[in-house]
Amino acid sequence: MAAETIDISTAMLTEPTALGDWLLVAPVGLPILFGAVLVMVRHETRLHAGLAIVGLLLTLAANAALLLQVLADGPQVMTMGRWLPPFGISFTADALGASLAFVATLVASVCALYAMKDIGATGRRYGFYPFLMLLMAGVGGSFLTGDIFNLYVWFEVFLISSFGLLILGSTDRQLDGATKYAILNLVGTTLFLTATAYLYGTFGTLNMADIARKADAMRGTGPMMTLAVLYLLAFGMKAAAFPVNFWLPASYHTPRIVTAALFGGVLTKVGVYALLRVLVMLFPVERGELSGVIAWVAAGTMVLGIMGAIAQSDIRRVLGFVVISGVGVMLAGLALGTETGLTGTILYAFHSVLAMTALYLLAGVIKELGGSYSLHELGGLYRAYPAMGAFALVLMLAVAGLPPASGLWPKILLVRASIEAGWPWLSFAILLTGLLTTIALGRVYILAIWRNRPSDVSADAVAGAPGYGYVSMALLCVPIILLGVYPEPFIRVAEAAASGLLDASGYIGAVFPAEAAQ
Amino acid sequence: MEVALSFVVSVFFAVAIYLMLSKHIIRILLGVSIFGNAVNLSIFTAGRLMREVPPFIPEALPTPEVATANPLPQALVLTAIVISFSLFAFLLVLAFRAYQELGTDDTDGMRVAEPEGEPMPPLGY
């Protein structure tokens, strides 16, 4: 037959997928599988929490194994559908994607634990846990995919799950917040798709490794700057960068506190991850030309974000603005583009995922014990619950960037990098943000926890057993303090991730092994 | 062909942005929908546009004989249509529910999550 004369081995995989390669899709496949099972048993709500926690712990184990493998052997690739890259969709895990996926799954597991208390039978009936699993599938897919259109698909997967989580409860505030969140995030992802259309028209490929190796050749002819700016706008919107960040304070304080914790910890970091991946790895020259713009965006995001936090009296809204200011700090490293700067950004992303989730959970515990989120009504918690005071102190030190908690080292790296790059004003902005964060959260600490209960508020609102909340916060405080007192391994991972972004040859070589061998 | 489609895409973008700048949720949603279609058309234009040349390869040859239509943008657009359609359906229901609960579809009037005239945060204790 004529077909046998055509050698397909150059275009298609002819060998079965190695068993170890399945590890790459496990962080996505496991949450989808467990999400499907949870939908099947949707009436047996008492099974939900256990199944979801088991699923997330398995996902966490797969992520940990993948991260260890990536750190030992470099980027890992699995290509779908037998078509070789750039035609098949490649899942590509490098140190950046694998480590962020691991941290995100870690906080999701803690959130699932906290939700055992926070989400009642009705919330479980409405599908909290399936949405949670599918959200994590989308987040994991975003971190691990090596194809830019596939990244869009994963963005939409976690976006639709986040809509579901956001309106769980259907109160007026949630519907209002979710409308703004949904429309603006949909516009953001559509902008991302616009950029992807131009990218495909320019390069004729959607595989990130393929784009990275062709970018130099296209620089003279393609509309590279247009692409870089469109991606900056689209992912900046996703990451809540000033001035396209106002959907976040409008919506993040409305859902159940555990949902807010997960969103505040994980979702903006997916935007930061996409910015790093696209601007640093695919368009390094354009990122260099845009660095001044990105630096101003970063400074605006962090300083104006934290000023917004100072102006709020609802703890959840304070935290929404703190999330924004953290995004600004991460963008500072993107603006610098040096290895130290990117290491700082990635380390700050680890810290921010852990610390923001823990702070939202703390807000949940405060609400449970103090009966309110409002700084006008809270008070007297320190005397009744000294352990919570200790948790709050650690977490607020972490977010403010003070020792012994996790925020210190990434900020030191970023300040050093911006001074080295000759931008002392950017390091000033980072330090000013640290000071303002200390003021904003110190005020929350003093008003909500330290002071006596206001006399016009009845004292018997203080009630409840914070068991789950304490366990969840303690689980998150372990890595937060570890990152503060023994940062070496974390910095090494972040450095590996940053150098992998700056020099994509390892990433490209993993996707195209035959050409790398030549 | 590309020129004509580029013109259509630009009109779609203009209409979409005009509608999205409106204050009413339903007009914003129509804008978002048109925005999605503009992007789909631009993905389509970004591939090769061909009339009546299906991307078939004769059995004996490794590559097609003539320039053919590019099937990949069609696959991409199909995916994007399905996703944007489902999100649009969700948004319509969400907007309807929000209209029912809040009694308005004017974004200036939707101030439940961020109430106007909030009191100052406590300035002392």
From TrEMBL, chain A:
TM region positions: 22-41, 48-71, 91-114, 126-145, 151-169, 181-200, 228-248, 260-284, 290-311, 318-336, 342-363, 384-405, 425-446, 467-486
Domain NADH:quinone oxidoreductase/Mrp antiporter transmembrane residue range list: 147-437
Main subcellular localisation: membrane
InterPro entries: CPA3_Na-H_Antiporter_D, NADH_UbQ_OxRdtase, ND/Mrp_TM
Subcellular location: Cell membrane; Membrane
Membrane topology label: Multi-pass membrane protein
Similarity-based family: Belongs to the CPA3 antiporters (TC 2.A.63) subunit D family.
Protein name: Na+/H+ antiporter subunit D
Lineage: Bacteria, Pseudomonadati, Pseudomonadota, Alphaproteobacteria, Hyphomicrobiales
UniProtKB/TrEMBL annotation, chain B:
Signal peptide: none
UniProt cross-references to Gene3D superfamilies, sorted A to Z: 1.10.287.3510
Domain of life: Bacteria
Coiled coil: none
InterPro entries, per the entry: CPA3_antiporter_subunitC (IPR050601), NUOK/Mnh_C1-like (IPR039428)
TM annotation in the entry: 6-21, 28-46, 75-96
Membrane topology reported for the UniProt record: Multi-pass membrane protein
Subcellular location: Cell membrane
Record's keyword terms, sorted: Cell membrane, Membrane, Transmembrane, Transmembrane helix
Keyword Cell membrane: yes
Keyword flag Transmembrane helix: yes
Assigned protein family: Belongs to the CPA3 antiporters (TC 2.A.63) subunit C family.
The name this protein goes by in its record: Na+/H+ antiporter subunit C
